[in-house]
Amino acid sequence: MTHPIPPGARDILPEEMRELRALQRKLADVFERYGYGEVATPTVEYDEVLSLGDLRGAPVAHRFFDESGELVALRADMTVPIARLVADRYGDQEPPFRLFYNARAFRAVRPQRGQAREFFQAGIELVGVPGPDGTAEVVEVLASALDAAGLGRAVIGMGHAALYRDLLREVGVSDDAAARVLDRLAAHDLVGLEEEVNGLGLGEGERRMLTTVPSLRGGPEVLERARELGEPVQRATERLGATYEAVTRRGVADRVQIDLGLLRDLGYYTGTIVEVYDPALGHILGGGGRYDELMGRFGRPLPAVGFALYLERLHIAQAEEERLAREGEAP
Amino acid sequence: MAARAGGALPRGPLRLALPRGALFSEALDVLDRIGIDTTELRGDSRSLVFEAGDLVIVTMRPSDVPTYVEAGAADLGITGKDVLIEQSDRVVYELLDLRFGSCRMVVAGRAGDDRALAEARRLGAVRVATKYPRIATRHFEETGRSAEVIEVKGSVELAPLAGLADVIVDLVDTGRTLRENGLEVLEEITQCTARLIANRVSHKLRAEDIDPLVERLREATR
Q: What CATH number is given for B3-102+193-220 in this structure?
């Protein structure tokens, strides 16, 4: 007889746990080298407090009542608990704050999709340093973390959460219509996006601009090509360009792919956003970005930026890269 | 230095998932038009994996295409919009409307029996048989009617004839199957055509290979 565990949950046995711990230590070493200190927050928090993150943020999936009848929840990521921690514990201290975590988070799963209900995240939060400098620091730490994990081929996709929204506003699209176009972009539906844009009654130049930008991704030449599309795109990509320059000064631009079509599904991002890809895995390894408005919801308005890596996916990609290297397939 | 991310990108052929079934031969025609030799795929081989031009082609059921593409087991895939709407929670890029395989997603019931929906309204819930439970559920929700959605795997047309359901939600091409079974279209939900989809990571890391292919396909299906 066996005893079931919930779908998406799993046991970790010693061999894997040893490797996961080794990976966590490598990442922790990198984070500490850059001056980040490790924090832990409660696994269970008040639902009301976690909800300050954003209704569109990483959705909390597990809620229950504690012994006093209070509604409590399991965190869906570490960014929201750390925003609370910084606001409450460091209320009387001067920023910046550099914090990292190796922790588990909890999300809802759909059946038979291989999704994890409970998973390890490793990441950092830099609170109190605005972009582009703060963002560039975090991208450098991320690049070092990927190197430490043995993922020399991993790429950091970098975009801007407000870029496409700004662009729609620049060409005078109404908020309602813009919401429909953004909805298609968020769903990665470029066909639907083109249909929506075609229905806006714009001139050919603007129509082309709006349908071209979401597919622009690559090296610094992408910013050049974007600028050629006209002034609205120039203005919408200014801040991303400044961040890319700051990243270049830190010597990690070669790890970065500029992606003008990038949108992340967490609602609290306000500025530059990043995603991590490795050719050995079909899923993203992690992501992050600027969330300059989240801290304000906890009463301590400070600019902030961070990233989280999915440890188990990092581990799978690491194993795959090692296998490819052994077989001499990796370039 | 800029070569590091670029130089380290995966090489080798792109993997394209093709749907066996109604869209298969038209998908092959489109590939022919952009100069990819599909002779081997047109034979009666039982193989599932083929090398064709600079692509590796893997063949499967249409509804499996998003599964393979989302997981990165294929970089690209061709499947119907009906499959993509039904599996809208799958995270894949939808890159191109290939404009073939045009079909309508409809609500259909017994011909001349326009009471089916009205009757159901009186009774409280329409009984709907379908292979597309999510599309059916959403359609009846959005039109303010409660529906009892019954998922079936085989010939949906049987359901209203045998009394399993009041109506069906299904994909209709010429409508011949409906007519031959004494059914007719009551409502149209949406139009569906074949779409090119891409894995999220492949779309980023293999942009230099994927974008030109998309452009060739766009030209060939214009």
A: 3.40.190.10
